[in-house]
Amino acid sequence: MRLWQEFYKGLLKENPILVLALGLCPTLAVSTSLKNALGMGLSATFVLISSNVLISLVKSFIPSRVRIPSYIVIIATFVTIVELVMEAYFPALYKQLGIFVPLIVVNCIILGRAEAFASRRGVVESFLDGLGMGIGFTLTLSVIGLVREVLGAGKIWGYPVSLDFVPVLMFALPPGALLVLGLLLILKQVGDRR
Amino acid sequence: MSKQLVITSSPHIRDKETISRIMWWVVISLIPAGISAVWVFGLPALYLIVACVVSAVLTELACQKVMGRPVRIGDGSAVITGLLLAYNVSAGLPLWMAVLGSVFAIAIGKQVFGGLGRNIFNPALVGRAFLMASFPAYMTRFYVWKDGALVSQATPLTVVKMGGVPAVTYKTLFLGNYAGCIGETSVLALLIGALILLWRGYISLHTPLSYIGTVALMTWIFGGKAGWFSGDWLFHILSGGLMLGAWFMATDMVTSPITKKGQVAFGIGCGLITSILRLWGGLPEGVSYSILIMNAFVPYLDNLFRPRRLGERRRWI
Amino acid sequence: MKAKSDLFQMLVSLGVICLVSASILSYVHAKTHPVIVEQEEKASQTAMYYVLPGAVKFEPAKGCDYYIGRDDKGNLVGYVFKTSEKGYSSEIVLMVGVDPDLKITGIKVLSQNETPGLGTRIVEVKATSTIWDVASGKAKEEPGRPWFLEQFVGKDLPGLAQVKTISGATISSSAVIRAVKKGLERLQRCLNN
What we know:
The complex is a heterotrimer.
Chain A: H1 2-8, H2 24-30, H3 34-58, H4 67-89, H5 91-97, H6 108-118, H7 123-153, E1 155-156, E2 159-160, H8 174-193
Chain B: H1 19-41, H2 43-66, H3 77-87, H4 95-107, H5 123-134, H6 136-139, E1 143-146, E2 149-152, H7 156-161, H8 170-175, H9 187-200, H10 206-222, H11 233-238, H12 242-249, H13 260-280, H14 287-295, H15 298-304
Antiparallel strand pairs in B: 1-2
Chain C: H1 2-51, E1 57-60, E2 67-70, E3 76-86, E4 91-98, E5 104-111, H2 131-135, H3 147-150, H4 170-192
Antiparallel strand pairs in C: 1-2, 2-3, 3-4, 4-5
């Protein structure tokens, strides 16, 4: 029961974007389309789960004074694996996400969970925490990506919604990302108060 | 009970002036430009003005209802925002885009910040910036009204940006019968409105004169092809949105500095940015962005030019 | 004594972590590197076939940076070159194919990072089927070619003046025209030598 909670708290109650406000840089930058958002979200989820599990495994061997550099090295390793695999097998997605794949290293969610959760909990809990947080991140990113793609480009998954739709370009630009994120935060707050 | 008792510290002056009275006078001062808009751009201009004003007022009503604030759509401030936004778009803009701009201007530009008096940026310009970012192709295609139809035409400033020589006389620029945003072309109509505002004492000359003066100076020094001090400054101050911006938007009571010195600094800043954007920027016109950028500096300017007590030093940061 | 062993422990644990991740990474790199190189080669090959239809073999020219395209009998079909120019927010890299008379046969954008919805209109393809068509399986396949780039086909160097820029994306589209012009001029110089 308690384990289950470690998973689903990341979906809404402690949603990394909407509640913890972590990882906003990739949120704003790559949420231009559903495809990009999903690609980014899943890559980050993979890194998050792997680093959470590994860090909770080796936490007792790492002296506390060098834990941050150690975590960064571990995270960077996983990110580089993701980057290389993506470049080799998903070149189109890799081209789209560009610089933001290597920047997963400094995604606050991952280091944040490593430091706040995985460094003091068991392997199973850390796995579930990473999974929940990752899915929460991916879902939020995808919602923003979907809204921005529909409004800003008139498309869903790259296909036009209607052939004579005039897109509201601002939603494809950074201010649109801030606006959609802001509206989503309002929705979350209104939902919480009900 | 608490709503009827307004407690403020002394001194107290009793005056008939109210916010809504000021706002409705500003609306009246904007009417000449509206008449000129319909004269130059025909019925499409009238439809745009009506659509913007109605949607601005309705958005204000909806926001105040949803946010649980007192409904004050009668104060005329939403009408002004709607009018100014309509004056800031091309006659060929589809009505639904204008409505969207109006909704954005009021909801995001004004009510989200807390309503009248609390907005940082001029709401009409926020709406215009939104439209520029969202529908650039529609916002930068300009028209004139000829024989009952809109005919596409480049604005004089666009012609200059493309390296050409605009075929307009100073008289045309003054009267306003040329392509541009619907409310900005007629300098005559705008000046009549400005005189009304000056007569009522709602604006002072500080901001407009320092703004227009800076643009004149900058374009005279740097704007000519034949070297320095050869620019056509008269052309630059008569064309584009400068007159509309300088008299009606840079003087907005909410989003401009309080002190006279602050207003002069505000005007000079607007003038510098406008000239830089016009002469070296990617777009032909820069009035709206320059006022928006300077809006962001208003709290700083207010603090910088706060009246000092004897012996107090000015603090720059 | 305590401090010293602390330091030693830190160095060892960091060293071990770095060593392990370095070896994992070099393994992954060794596995993916050939695939990545192959992908790049394939992308570049596909682009060459795309811009110079009819050619099957491409050989790099000597001394100059372009490729000579030949058909299966070894006849000259045309030339292919890369060119680039600074657009609005990124370097726009193009692959251009020309026939022996230096008339453009095709253009492909290899990489660009222009403003979505504005500058990216240089690679915009006129859509023919909506998401609803795709979902219901009625979609007509075969994605079209970017309409802006199709303007170039059949034009030579002086003909570039007739290419219309995209309103609202003037900077990006004129950067493409400048890039093609620059590349064509360079190719001409190379061929004359």
